Amino acid sequence: MAGPDLEDRAGVRVAAIQMRGTRDIARNIEEADRLVCEAARQGAAYVQTPEISNLVERDGARMRAEMRSEADDPMLAHMRALASELGIHLHLGSLALSEGDTAVNRGFVIGPDGTILARYDKIHMFDVDLPDGESWRESRTYRPGERAVLVDLPFAALGLSICYDVRFPALYRSLAVAGAEILTVPACFTKQTGEAHWHVLTRSRAIETGSFLVASTQGGHHEDGRDSFGHAIIIDPWGRVIAEGGEDPCVVVADLDLSKVAAARRRIPALTNARAFATPEPVRPLEPHA
Predict the structure, then answer these.
(1) CB-based burial label for 24 (10 Å; 0-12, 13-18, 19+)
(2) Is the pLDDT of residue 179 over 50?
(3) Does the residue 209 lie in any domain?
(4) What's the pTM value of the predicted model, to 2 decimals?
(5) Among 72, 73, 128, 283, which residue has the fewest nearby CB atoms (within 10 Å)?
(6) Active-site annotation holds for 191
């Protein structure tokens, strides 16, 4: 994608929604509706909700019993209608959806007429063992995505990602090289990893690519027993945090001057200065995670 002249991009007001999702899909829809409407009242033209906006449930069997297909998911239907009613671009950070005999963690960008403009399936699965016994195996529930997704909106080109993807900088570089001006990272970061890494990772992805970054989040103690970090955040292309939430549900709003993308990339032209190089032979090959 050649993309537009970044110098000609105007400003846009964006909002990152912070939720505390539950096991009850209807309650999550009601809370997301309330927060999205508040963001629209504050003038946001683009509103992003967190990862797994429809259902926060770590028990795989219970999650599979509650999940619906894309065609039948009530939150997707509701949010498409809401985007049309409000006349905004609404980014459902992700929904847990059934698809055949498996499941996907899928984000949607919805236009002001309710049309689905883009879909993105989370590529990197959060399969980790953390200190204090916290363990996650997303690959047991979800089928990973296989392609990066860029969507060109009237105000900016958006590069899509979800949560754990933020630890894989090559994804964001590929999006920026393809023309992304705003990187999106809807997330449900654990409290433990968020306290250690959230700000470093999100700021790094913005700095490396000279892009704005918008990250909606889940925050607080959830019904399924997990604790998520919160801190929905908006970062400029120089790596400065320009708006941030805490742990409680909230709306984080900022005005983005898209000309700052071109300015940052001109000052530090890392996207064009990169060179190919030979890689070393591994001395201790990584073993695949069971």
Answers:
(1) middle
(2) yes
(3) yes
(4) 0.94
(5) 283
(6) no
